[in-house]
Specification:
41% helix, TIM Barrel, two-stranded antiparallel sheet, 305 residues, alpha/beta, 2 domains, 9 helices, 8-stranded parallel β-barrel
């Protein structure tokens, strides 16, 4: 080797340091050598209930932060002391991706019983207040359920009427209402979701799109492209119609990005097309530090964060 191109000790140490930093970045990004196309655009979160380590609240949040998550998802009521939780969030600088209306399955806004609907509306307003308290920008809402006592048209009209009553309160709190697609026999395709959301005529009501919930009906990328800018937040889970060795459908038991029916590359492409920026919250079984670390790495990979 020519002396002119031989690395000296200083160059060697500099190169070694840079390589070490690259390894550190690789580790933080779940095996990726550099940040993905959605780094800085999509923020990762887990629900508070997914943190399975038996630790004080502040240490649970520090654990989540250490694993690379940007925030947590809360229920309303949240199940812990609100002031203590707010202090812990401020200390760890974690955000709150959304607050879930914890009573929407119990007190349906589509119920034929007026008193039940009134309780459901009151719970929604309390959830909006809680979201404001924690600095969250969304309350996740399941607006109603189609069942033996409630048909589709009644679910549509009743829930629409009740949600409209909460829009002014949403404006006052600065918190939007995110309608989630779930297995409630109500909104099973993106076209219905568009009709439902657009019917409110307000940007305070948008879509909380759960990527895994309706894979068996429609391709997630079709949902993304159809809903477009109506998507306020994302829930992340896997799903497959494949069966296990005992002939049981694996369903939501599939690991994120591993053996499921979701084409994550196409979903990520669609999210880029609509210019999505915001929260993506894992809705999968939680557990120990290792489990949460695996979830973070899988989210980085499938969403190209």
């Amino acid at each position: 080797m020519n002396d002119a191109v031989k690395p000296n000790r200083r160059d060697f140490l500099k190169t070694t340091a840079l390589a070490g930093a690259a390894v550190g970045v690789t580790s933080l990004l779940g095996g990726k050598a550099s940040a993905g196309s959605n780094a800085g655009k999509i923020k990762k979160a887990v629900s508070l209930g997914m943190i399975g380590e038996k630790l004080p609240l502040i240490d649970k949040l520090k654990l989540v932060k250490d694993l690379g998550f940007d925030g947590i998802e809360l229920n309303s009521p949240c199940g812990v002391d609100k002031d203590e939780l707010k202090k812990a969030l401020d200390e760890t600088k974690l955000g709150v991706s959304e607050v879930i209306d914890g009573l929407h399955w119990k007190d349906h806004l589509s119920s034929p019983n007026e008193e039940v609907r009134a309780r459901g509306l009151a719970a929604l307003k309390v959830s909006l207040d809680d979201a404001k308290f924690f600095g969250a920008g969304e309350v996740l809402l399941v607006p109603g359920v189609v069942n033996a006592n409630v048909n589709f048209d009644d679910c549509f009209s009743r829930s629409t009427e009740e949600v409209k009553k909460a829009i002014e309160h949403a404006k006052e709190t600065g918190v939007k209402i995110g309608i989630e697609n779930v297995w409630n026999n109500f909104i099973n395709d993106p076209e219905t979701m568009v009709k439902y959301i657009d019917g409110f005529g307000s940007d305070m009501v948008m879509a909380h799109y759960d990527i895994g919930n309706h894979v068996k009906f429609n391709k997630p990328e079709h949902w993304v492209r159809t809903l477009g800018k109506r998507i306020l937040r994302l829930h992340i889970k896997e799903y497959t119609g494949k069966q296990d060795a005992n002939g049981k459908v694996i369903g939501f038991g599939a690991k994120l990005g591993d053996g499921g029916d979701i084409n994550w590359a196409e979903v990520t492409k669609a999210l880029g097309e609509i210019g999505y920026r915001g929260w993506a919250t894992a809705e999968v079984p939680g557990g120990t530090r290792e489990t949460l670390k695996d979830i973070a790495e899988r989210m980085n990979r499938i969403l190209d964060i």
